[in-house]
């Protein structure tokens, strides 16, 4: 009865714990090391794998009188980790098994060949399963683990057929199958939770860098971007402000005001992305103020795109659900950072040009490439 509990419950829990420990170690410890030594990586992997594999083999042998689940770590590493480490695991597993049995039972040296042939079959099976189409990576892992544990169990029981009755072999075989299923379920639950956490982290990062109303980048994202730039970066910066937006809010209400902001943000985004694709970054600073940063274009090219935006707004104005048209304009300022002008200075100059456009009558866009210092 104790053997059944060990095979069906205890060992699957222990193996899952070791797999999670390996994943956490490589994710949070190994990747934090600032080194580029492949040899050190392999040494660390070999040492950790040796310790974990000895734990599995020793516990299995002492508790059950046989070795089982010895290929769970290599298979999991092959499908869920790094294949280069998995290859090392497949090489080390026969050596560890042979060395352990040599010390415990005085196993003859020729048995090493048989153990390696079994390991080669397991490794080859993994590669063949990888090539299967229309099956996800976790499905391939589950298939490989189930098949190889069945294969390994059949071979083991055939070798030890004189020590176990047919009834005992069937019961142990079913327990190993049940244990394999538990390992798959535990790992699936962990991976699903890990995926959920990653998606949450990704969403939190996205929310921290984007404006909720317009889905444009926000001022925090702008600050991060500017802090990463140097005086060598050639950037054209456009500052835009919707004219008389407070009056629009007062006249039509904040809900309509928000709709206007979303409408303008969409037109701004589509116009500039259509022209510059991946070289443009569009921000909402708050309220009715927006900023556009474009790499490696002239101020006049940017100004031409602004004229295109004005044309788009004129041809496709904002309308309420009642089809009432609401016309509005915007003012802007365009400046450029160069080798002698840092992006922060260019931003200040663009803001100054925007202020001048507002002061001189609005619905204007000023630009300049003269000294901005």
Could you name the key traits of this structure?
Alpha-Beta Plaits; 2 domains; 5-stranded mixed beta sheet; two-stranded antiparallel ribbon
Care to describe what's here?
- The mean pLDDT is 87.
- The chain has two domains: 2-208, no CATH class; 219-367, Reverse transcriptase/Diguanylate cyclase domain (Alpha-Beta Plaits, 2-Layer Sandwich), CATH 3.30.70.270.
- Strand 4 (318-319) and strand 5 form a beta hairpin.
- It has a five-stranded mixed β-sheet with strand order 2-3-1-6-7, with helices on both faces. It has a two-stranded antiparallel sheet with strand order 4-5.
- With 373 residues, it is an alpha+beta fold.
- The protein is elongated and about 100 Å long.
- The chain has twelve helices and seven strands.
Structural topology:
Layout: H1 2-28, H2 38-64, H3 72-80, H4 83-105, H5 111-130, H6 137-159, H7 166-209, H8 219-227, E1 235-242, H9 245-252, H10 254-276, E2 280-286, E3 289-295, H11 299-315, E4 318-319, E5 325-326, E6 330-337, H12 343-359, E7 365-367
Parallel strand pairs: 6-7
Antiparallel strand pairs: 1-3, 1-6, 2-3, 4-5
Helix pairs in contact: 1-2, 1-7, 2-4, 3-4, 3-6, 4-5, 5-6, 6-7, 9-10, 10-11
């Amino acid at each position: 009865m104790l053997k059944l509990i060990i095979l069906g419950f205890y060992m699957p829990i222990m193996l899952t714990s070791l797999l999670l420990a390996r994943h956490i170690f490589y994710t949070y410890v190994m990747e934090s090391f600032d080194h580029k030594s492949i040899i050190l990586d392999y040494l660390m992997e070999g040492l950790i794998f040796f310790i974990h594999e000895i734990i599995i083999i020793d516990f299995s042998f002492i508790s059950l009188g046989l070795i089982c689940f010895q290929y769970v770590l290599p298979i999991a590493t092959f499908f869920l980790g790094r294949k280069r480490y998995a290859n090392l695991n497949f090489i080390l597993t026969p050596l560890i098994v042979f060395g352990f049995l040599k010390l415990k039972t005085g196993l003859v040296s020729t048995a090493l060949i048989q153990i390696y042939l079994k390991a080669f079959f397991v490794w080859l099976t993994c590669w063949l399963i990888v090539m299967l189409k229309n099956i996800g990576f976790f499905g391939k892992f589950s298939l490989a683990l189930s098949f190889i544990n069945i294969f390994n169990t059949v071979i083991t029981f055939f070798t030890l057929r004189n020590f176990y009755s047919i009834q005992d072999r069937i019961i142990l075989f079913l327990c190993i199958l049940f244990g394999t299923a538990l390992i798959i379920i535990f790992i699936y639950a962990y991976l699903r939770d890990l995926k959920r956490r990653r998606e949450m982290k990704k969403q939190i990062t996205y929310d921290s860098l984007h404006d909720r109303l317009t889905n444009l980048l926000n001022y925090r994202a702008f600050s991060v971007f500017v802090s990463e730039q140097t005086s060598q970066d050639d950037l054209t910066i456009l500052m835009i402000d919707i004219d008389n937006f407070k009056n629009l809010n007062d006249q039509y209400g904040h809900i309509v005001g928000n709709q206007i902001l979303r409408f303008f943000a969409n037109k701004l985004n589509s116009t500039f992305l259509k022209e510059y694709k991946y070289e443009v970054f569009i921000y909402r600073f708050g309220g009715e103020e927006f900023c556009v940063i474009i790499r490696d274009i002239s101020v006049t090219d940017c100004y031409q795109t602004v004229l295109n935006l004005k044309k788009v707004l004129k041809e496709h104005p904002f309308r309420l659900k009642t089809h009432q048209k609401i016309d509005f304009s915007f003012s802007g300022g365009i400046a450029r950072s160069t080798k002698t002008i840092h992006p922060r200075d260019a931003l200040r100059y663009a803001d100054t040009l925007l202020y001048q456009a507002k002061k001189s009558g609005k619905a204007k866009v000023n630009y300049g490439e003269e000294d901005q210092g």
